[in-house]
């Protein structure tokens, strides 16, 4: 449930980042960090390396786009959440259906 809320707020944060509503971008980043922290506590996620890389990319974005450093980090965290979900779901579905197909042949 928290993953769906995190995706929705991060997606809204990305859209609002381009329209100048930075409050939604910050909210999306905070919900993303809470979601990742809860997943680490539950054992579903082993580390926060993607979030750390997203923060570094956000710092680089803030230098090149001449925005505040914290806003660059928040935007990068929102992008990280949405991109991982958009890449992760098709991958999981492909492995799931491939595994089912292979399981039926045996």
Element string (H = helix, E = strand): HHHH
Strand percentage lies at under 5%
Helix share, percent: over 70%
Report the mean per-residue pLDDT as an integer: 87
The number of helical segments is 4
- What is the SS-derived class? mainly alpha
General shape: elongated
Distance between the termini: 35 Å
Poorly predicted runs are: none
Biggest β-sheet description = none
Radius of gyration: 16 Å
Strand elements, count: 0
What does this structure look like?
The structure is a single chain. With 106 residues, the protein is an all-alpha fold. It has 4 helices and no strands. Helix 1 packs across helix 4. The longest helix has 37 residues.
What secondary-structure arrangement, pairings included, does this model have?
Blueprint: H1 2-19, H2 22-42, H3 49-65, H4 69-105
Helix pairs in contact: 1-2, 1-4, 2-4, 3-4
Which structural traits does this protein have?
106 residues; mainly alpha; 0% strand
Short description:
The protein is 88% helix and 0% strand. By secondary structure, the protein is mostly helical. The termini are far apart.
